[in-house]
């Protein structure tokens, strides 16, 4: 009966209830977006790192992958040592460097280039054409083709170590653009190339001989990646072995302000929702003071009155929140488009990731807020002096 | 007959601005089981205050009040609420039905609160609405009923949990003369069927129909009964 009375009380002023629902829906949408932003980045980043199933990254001691120009020497020996470790099923060494090419109009285009081993690489996927086959082949992203004016099948000259003062380069070689790839971890706006690791090491001369920027390691299914990480760390004092969790934490620290922003905006939207529902139900309780006093007079317990009023809050916030999920998903897409223009972000990285769990969290928070919002008016309703209220009603 | 209501030296004061208003000053009387008592007197004489105390919706400042063997003057709120639910039936001048509920649901409300089973509730609703002559109007909302019909529904609601005592505050106050007479007839039938009734009224015909009248003035009983 309290639930039915709560619902009927809400239907008594449909226009007012509808407006309140709209307000709660907007509040819920913002809250959902903020929950998606706060947890989505973490979940997205994990998925982002796990695109090809490599759980571990090995970088020069004290750095994060591609955080600096530092490289690891004696890469062949290191890769061999890691490959032999128990629980390791794949090792993918990667060398990164800036590579120049001359574009139409005599301008230079600098591309971030990855030297990889195609069989084990976890940095890109082919869109069209062929993957790397030999030392004269490269794969490029769409942005590089656009910047240089080249197309699939063109022969290009690439050089490493460009000196802008002397306008000279080191290790120039001719390559055939053999395929177009999408690089997972590099911004779509960054011209990018991929070539065989030994070719790139050779182009760099002594400075890059047998060096890598990063080694990606895949642990076997069922093997604790943290145990493997410890084994890798013990291989050499010159390296840092980073697990998925470690990398996620490091990124979270750097993107911490997004979480703070989400927390502040989420809290504000929740507070607005609570105030809105509290105000509406308090007005409704004041209007129904006589009815509530009669209910108490005929023996309805305070607890039933409290439950009825709190139910009004829960129903109002729950219906508003469910409506708000749709609005939240639409605004998340819009915000995603704005944030994806942030410089340097890889195309595969998303700020807002919808997960049913997030919607569940937002709904649970709003339901709790609805309950909280109902407490004050419920307390007022239950505390009404029965005789005094009936007397006032009779006089009115 | 046994006394179902025992009132002894009941007093109730209200603080009003600078001073206190003595709404009841040492009221004492008994009501026997199966009696119909009318409390009459001018406005402000303390009739409604007395009814509120008898209905356990207010507490006295002094004196004792026993209904159906239970002292209600010092009951805790939760106990008083449970007492009202099971032992007291209230009928108000303005009916005070829940506007969003049907006649049947209004009658069902106290039984639902008392955790009576759904089947038993339905049967009792049918019985009570039939008793007050509204068997065919069970699905109607209060706004679809006349004043007299609303008051009949209110009486059915008051009887839902088979109370020991029916309290009515000006039950004909909002009704026209003809409907008032119908209401008096209904009260007469209720009393004849064994319901103990205390009614506060200005209606001379209602007062005359009661088995006994208690006349009040300035918060005290001036005639009618003494224990």
How would you summarize this macromolecular structure in one to three sentences?
The complex is a heterodimer of chains A (396) and B (227). With 396 residues, chain A is of the alpha+beta class. Chain A folds into two domains: 2-48 and 254-395, no CATH class; 56-242, no CATH class.
Features:
heterodimer, A: 396 residues, alpha+beta, 2 domains, 6-stranded mixed β-barrel, 10 strands, B: alpha/beta, Rossmann fold, 6-stranded mixed β-sheet, 4-stranded antiparallel β-sheet, 7 helices
Main sheet strand line-up of chain A: 2-3-8-5-7-6
Q: Give the % helix of chain A.
A: 40-55%
> How many β strands of chain A by DSSP?
10
Multimeric organization:
heterodimer
| Strand line-up in the sheet with most strands of chain B | 6-7-8-3-9-10
Radius of gyration of chain B: 17 Å
- Total number of domains of chain B: 1
Provide an overview of this structure.
- Chain A is an alpha+beta fold.
- Chain A has two domains: 2-48 and 254-395, no CATH class; 56-242, no CATH class.
- Chain A is 52% helix and 20% strand.
- Chain A has twelve helices and ten strands.
- Chain A has helices at residues 2-11, 14-49, 75-83, 142-148, 197-203, 225-233, 244-254, 256-287, 289-297, 302-339, 356-383, 386-395; strands spanning 56-60, 88-102, 108-116, 124-129, 137-140, 155-163, 168-183, 192-196, 214-219, 239-242.
- In chain A, strands 2-3-8-5-7-6 form a six-stranded mixed beta barrel.
- Chain A is elongated.
- Chain B is of the alpha/beta class.
- Chain B has one domain: Rossmann fold (3-Layer(aba) Sandwich), CATH 3.40.50.300.
- Chain B has seven helices and ten strands.
- In chain B, the strands form two sheets. Chain B has a six-stranded mixed β-sheet, sandwiched between helices.
- In chain B, strand 1 (3-16) and strand 2 form a beta hairpin.
- In chain B, helix 3 crosses helix 4 (118-131), helix 3 (103-113) packs parallel to helix 5 and helix 5 (147-159) packs parallel to helix 6 (177-192).
- The longest helix of chain B is centred in the C-terminal third of the chain and has 16 residues, at 177-192.
- The model of chain B has no long low-confidence stretch (mean pLDDT 91).
- Chain A binds chain B through residues 1, 4-5, 8-9, 11-12, 290-291, 294-302, 304, 386-387, 390-391, 393-394, and chain B through 48-49, 52, 55, 57-58, 77-78, 81-86, 88, 90, 92-94, 96, 98-101, 108-110, 112-114, 157-158, 161.
């Amino acid at each position: 009966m309290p639930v039915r009375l709560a619902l009927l009380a809400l239907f008594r002023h449909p226009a007012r209830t509808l407006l309140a629902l709209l307000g709660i829906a907007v509040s819920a949408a913002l809250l959902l977006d903020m929950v998606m932003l706060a947890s989505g980045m973490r979940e997205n980043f994990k998925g982002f790192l796990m695109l090809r199933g490599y759980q571990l990254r090995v970088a020069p001691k004290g750095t994060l992958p591609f955080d600096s120009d530092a490289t690891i020497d004696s890469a062949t020996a290191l890769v061999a040592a890691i490959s032999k470790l128990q629980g390791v099923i794949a090792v993918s060494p990667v060398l990164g460097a800036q590579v120049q090419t001359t574009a139409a109009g005599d301008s230079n285009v600098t591309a971030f280039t990855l030297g990889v081993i195609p069989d084990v690489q976890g940095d890109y996927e082919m869109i069209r054409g062929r993957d790397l086959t030999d030392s004269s082949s490269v794969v490029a992203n769409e942005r590089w083709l656009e910047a240089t004016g080249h197309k699939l099948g063109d022969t290009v000259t690439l050089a490493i170590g460009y000196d802008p003062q002397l306008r000279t380069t080191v290790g120039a070689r001719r390559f055939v653009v053999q395929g177009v790839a999408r690089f997972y971890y590099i911004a779509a706006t960054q011209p990018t190339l991929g070539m065989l690791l030994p070719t790139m090491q050779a182009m760099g001369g002594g400075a890059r001989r047998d060096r890598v920027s990063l080694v990606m390691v895949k642990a076997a299914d069922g093997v604790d990646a943290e145990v493997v990480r410890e084994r890798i760390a013990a291989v050499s004092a010159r390296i840092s072995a980073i697990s998925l969790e470690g990398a996620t934490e490091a990124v979270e620290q750097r993107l911490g302000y997004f979480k703070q922003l989400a927390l502040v905006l989420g809290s504000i939207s929740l507070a607005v929702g609570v105030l809105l529902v509290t105000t509406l139900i308090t007005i409704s309780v004041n209007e129904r003071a006589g009815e509530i006093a009669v209910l108490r007079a005929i023996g309805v317990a305070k607890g039933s009155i409290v439950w009825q009023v709190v139910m009004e809050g829960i129903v109002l916030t729950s219906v508003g929140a469910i409506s708000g999920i749709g609005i939240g998903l639409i605004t998340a897409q819009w915000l995603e488009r704005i944030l994806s223009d942030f410089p340097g972000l890889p195309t595969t990285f998303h700020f807002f990731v919808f997960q049913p769990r997030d919607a569940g969290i937002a709904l649970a928070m709003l339901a709790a807020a609805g309950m909280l919002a109902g407490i004050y008016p419920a307390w007022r309703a239950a505390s009404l002096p029965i005789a005094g209220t009936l007397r006032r009603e009779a006089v009115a | 007959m046994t006394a179902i209501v025992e009132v002894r030296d009941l007093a109730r004061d209200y603080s009003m601005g600078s001073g206190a208003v003595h709404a009841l000053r040492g009221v004492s009387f008994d009501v026997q089981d199966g009696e119909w008592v009318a409390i009459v007197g001018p406005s402000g004489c303390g009739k409604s205050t007395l009814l509120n105390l008898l209905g356990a919706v207010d507490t006295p400042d002094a004196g004792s009040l026993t209904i159906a063997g239970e002292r209600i003057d010092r009951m805790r709120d939760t106990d008083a609420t449970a007492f009202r639910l099971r032992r007291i039936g209230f009928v108000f001048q303005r009916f005070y039905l829940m506007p969003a509920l049907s006649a049947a649901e209004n009658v069902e409300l106290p039984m639902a609160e008392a955790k009576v089973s759904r089947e038993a509730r339905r049967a009792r609703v049918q019985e009570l609405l039939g008793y007050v002559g509204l068997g065919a109007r069970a699905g109607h909302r209060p706004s679809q009923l006349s004043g007299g019909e609303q008051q009949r529904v209110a009486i059915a609601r008051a009887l839902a949990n088979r109370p020991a005592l029916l309290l009515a505050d000006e039950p004909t106050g909002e009704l026209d003369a003809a409907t008032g007479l119908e209401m008096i007839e209904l009260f007469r039938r209720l009393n004849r069927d064994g319901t103990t009734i205390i009614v506060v009224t200005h209606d001379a015909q209602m007062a005359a129909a009661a088995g006994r009248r208690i006349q009040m003035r300035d918060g005290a009983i001036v005639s009618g009964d003494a224990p």
